[in-house]
Write a structure and sequence with these properties.
By secondary structure, the chain is α+β, with helices and mostly antiparallel strands. Among the domains are: 165 residues, Dipeptide-binding Protein, domain 1 (Alpha-Beta Complex); 223 residues, Dipeptide-binding Protein, Domain 3 (Dipeptide-binding Protein, domain 3). Strands 11, 12, 13, 14, 15, 16, 17 and 18 form an eight-stranded mixed beta sheet that branches. A four-stranded mixed beta sheet has the order 1-10-9-8, covered by helices on one side. Strands 4-5-7-6 form a four-stranded antiparallel beta sheet, covered by helices on one side. A hairpin with a 4-residue loop joins strand 6 and strand 7. Helix 1 packs across helix 8 and helix 17 packs antiparallel against helix 18. It is globular, with a radius of gyration of 26 Å. The two termini are 37 Å apart.
C-alpha cells in the first residue's frame, strides 16, 4: 500500500472510531449509509481484497467480490449439502467421452457482458465460446503468474507446452531488450482448448480429472472479455467486467466496494423444489431448508437486492459495533466478542430477543499436527502414536478456540465424502490418554521418554508466527509431551521460513491447517500421497504403498459410493499410521439480522451471496429503534 493508501486508511480508521463512539454513546447520528436508495446488502470484510482479476483471486475477500461479478461454467448450489454443482454459463451438464478425456460444453445463448466503456458502443457484447478459450489461455500465461495454475497444471492437452513456449518467448525478448507485451503469443492455439462454433466449447484432457468441475466453479476460471484486459491493462484488477448478477459501481481498494444489480442479467431463479421437481437434487433435504425459511424467495428471479455495499473494516471492534447497531446484515463475531455474542456456546438472549439468529457451520478444513516421517526419530510409528495419545485436544478446544471447534478424529471433515469417525490413538472425548501413550513410548523404545544412551528424548516443534494463540498452542503441546517424558523445543518462524524448512525436509513436527479449495477429499489426501513429498506439498513425507495405490485409483474416478469407500480406507490408513494428528475442525458461528433472508453460509464458495435478500422495511424499523439517541433501544 503506497503512502496515499496508508494516509487514506488512517483517515478511514479514525472515521470508524468516531462512528464507534457514536454507536456506543448515541450522541450523534451514526448512519453510515446516508442517502442510500433501494435494497442494499451491508457486509464488512476483514481484509483488503488483493485483486478483482479472476486469474489473481487468491484470497477470500477478493473471491467474495469476484463471485458476484463474474461467472464460470458452473456454480455451487446455494443450499444443497453435501455440496452440489449446477450449470452456470454452461447450458446443461456437459458431454463427457467414455474415457473421460473429452468434455464438451454447450453455452447459454444470449448472455451479455456488463455494459462498459471497453466496448465500442459501451454496450456489453454477447458471450461466446472463444471468450473461455481466451480466459483459460490468459490464466495459463506465465506473464500473469496466477497462483491458481496448479488447478490446470498437466491437465489440458497441450496447455503446459503452450505455457512453456510463451515463457521462452518472453525470456528471449527480455534478453534482446525488446518490449514483449505482457500477453505475447495469445494467438497461438492450444490443442486441448477449442471453440467448436459460437456456443460450443471443448476441453481435451491429458487424463481423467474428476475434480475439474469443482475447479470450473472457482473464480480463477471465470470468464471476461478480452476488450477489458486490453483497455485497462494492469488496472483490470480494479475494473472488473463480467456476466454476473452484480457489477461494480464504485471501488475504493482501501475503503469499500459498491455493487449494483446487473439489469441485463439473464433469468436465474431461486431453487423452487416444491413447485419444480427438476430442482430437487439428490441428497438435498430441501424440505428441511424450506422449514428453516431459506426458500422464502423460491422461484424469484435474481438478483433479489438492488446492490451490495461491502466495507473493508479491518478492526474487530468497529466491525462488531456495526453489527450490534444493525449496520451489517450478518457477521462472524470477532474472537474477543465471542463471550458477549455466544456465552457458553449459545446465542445471547439479548440478541435472540431482537430476532438475531445464529447458524453454526463446521469449517471445511482441518487443523493438524504434522510429523516429518522421514526424520530418523519420527519415522518410528509407535512414537507418533504415543504423541497422538498424549495430546489433550479437549483442553485446546475449550481454551484456545473458546469452544468454537469440533474434535477432529479424521483428517477429512464432516460433510465431505470419505469422513469416518475413527482414530485408534485418540480418546472419543479428545482428552489425553496418558497411560496408553506411555505404553507406546515403551513400544517405540523410549520408556519414560529416555533414549538408549540415557538421555531424554528431545523434539523440535515449528510454529509459524509468534502470536499469543500460536505461543499458547506450542506451550500446551510441550506440556502434553512432557507428561510422557519428551522435552520439546519450540522454534518460532515466519510462515515463509517454515515453508522453506518443509521443502527441505528440515523439521520434525509442525502445527498446520488446511482449508479445502473444493469439497472433495482428494484435496487434502493429496498432501499424503508419496510422490507429492517435499519439496512438493506433502510435508509429512509419508510413504505408504497401499495409500498411494488407493490414491492413484481414486484420482481418475468420478464421484461414486466406490470412490467414497476408497477415501474412507485412506483415512483409516492415516489414522493408524499417524503421519498427522488431526486436532480440530473449526466452527463458524454466523449471526444473522432478522431482516436477512435466504442465507445458508459456507466458506467453501461465495455463490450463496447472490441469493441473499433484505426486508428493507423491517431493517429501517429495527435500526431506528436500536439507535435512539443517548443509548435508547434494547442495546
Amino acid at each position: 500500500m503506497g503512502s496515499w493508501g496508508i494516509t487514506l486508511y488512517m483517515r478511514l480508521s479514525c472515521s470508524l472510531l468516531a462512528l464507534s463512539l457514536c454507536l456506543v454513546w448515541g450522541s450523534c447520528s451514526p448512519d453510515p449509509y446516508p442517502g442510500e436508495k433501494g435494497k442494499i446488502l451491508h457486509a464488512g470484510l476483514l481484509a483488503l481484497p488483493k485483486s478483482l482479476d479472476p486469474a489473481g483471486v487468491e484470497d477470500m475477500y477478493s473471491g467474495i467480490i469476484a463471485s458476484q461479478v463474474y461467472e464460470g461454467l458452473f456454480q455451487y448450489h446455494p443450499y444443497a449439502r453435501p455440496f452440489r454443482l449446477i450449470p452456470a454459463l454452461a447450458r446443461e451438464e456437459p458431454e463427457v467421452s467414455k474415457d473421460g478425456l473429452t468434455i464438451t460444453f454447450e453455452l447459454r445463448r444470449g448472455v451479455h457482458f456488463h455494459d462498459d466503456p471497453c466496448f465500442p458502443d459501451g454496450k456489453g457484447r454477447e458471450l461466446v465460446a472463444d471468450d473461455f478459450v481466451y480466459c483459460f489461455k490468459r490464466f495459463a500465461h506465465p506473464a500473469v503468474q496466477s497462483k491458481g495454475w496448479w488447478t490446470l497444471d498437466k491437465k489440458i492437452l497441450g496447455l503446459n507446452a503452450w505455457r512453456k513456449a510463451r515463457a521462452k518467448e518472453l525470456e528471449d525478448l527480455q534478453k534482446e531488450g525488446k518490449a514483449s507485451g505482457s500477453l505475447h503469443g495469445m494467438e497461438v492455439p492450444v490443442e486441448g482448448l477449442q471453440a467448436l462454433g459460437r456456443y460450443r466449447l471443448q476441453l481435451r484432457l491429458t487424463q481423467a480429472y474428476p475434480q475439474l468441475f469443482w475447479v470450473l466453479a472457482m473464480p480463477y476460471l471465470s470468464v471476461y472479455p478480452h476488450e477489458a484486459v486490453e483497455k485497462y491493462g494492469a488496472e483490470f484488477q480494479n475494473h472488473p467486467v463480467g456476466t454476473g448478477p452484480f457489477r461494480v459501481k464504485r471501488y475504493n481498494p482501501v475503503y469499500r466496494v459498491v455493487l449494483e444489480k446487473n439489469s441485463g442479467y439473464r433469468t436465474v431463479r431461486v431453487p423452487d423444489p416444491r413447485r419444480r421437481p427438476e430442482d430437487r437434487l439428490p441428497g438435498w433435504d430441501w424440505e428441511k431448508d424450506e422449514q428453516a425459511g431459506l426458500l422464502v424467495n423460491a422461484g424469484k428471479k435474481l438478483p433479489l437486492v438492488d446492490g451490495m455495499e461491502l466495507r473493508f473494516i479491518l478492526e474487530d471492534q468497529p466491525r462488531w459495533l456495526y453489527f450490534k447497531s444493525g449496520y451489517l446484515d450478518f457477521l462472524i463475531p470477532p474472537k474477543d466478542n465471542m463471550d458477549e455474542a455466544i456465552p457458553a456456546g449459545k446465542l445471547n438472549p439479548r440478541f435472540a430477543k431482537r430476532g438475531v439468529t445464529m447458524e453454526t457451520v463446521v469449517e471445511t478444513g482441518t487443523v493438524y499436527t504434522c510429523f516429518n516421517t522421514e526424520d530418523p526419530v519420527l519415522r518410528n510409528v509407535n512414537l507418533r502414536r504415543a504423541i497422538s495419545l498424549a495430546l489433550d485436544n479437549a483442553w485446546m478446544i475449550q481454551n484456545l478456540y473458546a469452544g468454537q471447534a469440533l474434535l477432529a478424529k479424521c483428517l477429512i471433515p464432516p460433510m465431505i465424502a470419505g469422513f469416518i469417525d475413527y482414530h485408534p490413538y485418540m480418546k472419543d472425548d479428545g482428552t489425553a490418554w496418558i497411560e496408553k501413550a506411555k505404553e507406546y513410548m515403551k513400544k517405540a523404545g523410549f520408556p519414560g521418554g529416555m533414549r538408549k544412551d540415557g538421555k531424554r528424548l528431545r523434539l523440535r516443534y515449528e510454529s509459524a508466527g509468534a502470536s499469543a494463540t500460536q505461543m499458547q498452542f506450542a506451550s500446551r503441546f510441550a506440556q502434553d509431551l512432557r507428561r510422557i517424558g519428551i522435552e520439546v523445543d519450540n522454534i518460532v518462524n515466519t510462515f515463509p521460513q517454515m515453508i522453506g524448512k518443509m521443502r527441505k525436509k528440515d523439521f520434525q513436527i509442525a502445527g498446520l491447517a488446511w482449508g479445502f479449495d473444493y469439497p472433495d477429499a482428494q484435496n487434502i489426501l493429496q498432501l499424503l500421497y508419496g510422490p507429492n513429498a517435499s519439496p512438493g506439498p506433502g510435508a509429512a513425507n509419508f510413504h505408504n504403498a497401499r495409500f498411494d495405490r488407493l490414491y492413484e485409483k481414486a484420482l481418475t474416478m468420478w464421484d461414486s459410493p466406490e470412490r467414497t469407500r476408497i477415501y474412507q480406507e485412506m483415512a483409516k490408513i492415516v489414522a493408524e499410521e499417524v503421519p498427522w494428528v488431526p486436532r480440530v475442525h473449526r466452527l463458524r458461528r454466523v449471526l444473522r439480522q432478522p431482516w436477512l433472508k435466504g442465507m445458508k453460509y459456507t466458506q467453501v464458495t461465495y455463490h450463496f451471496w447472490r441469493y441473499l435478500d433484505v426486508d428493507l422495511a423491517l431493517r429501517k424499523k429495527k435500526v431506528a429503534a436500536w439507535n435512539k439517541a443517548f443509548g435508547g433501544g434494547d442495546r
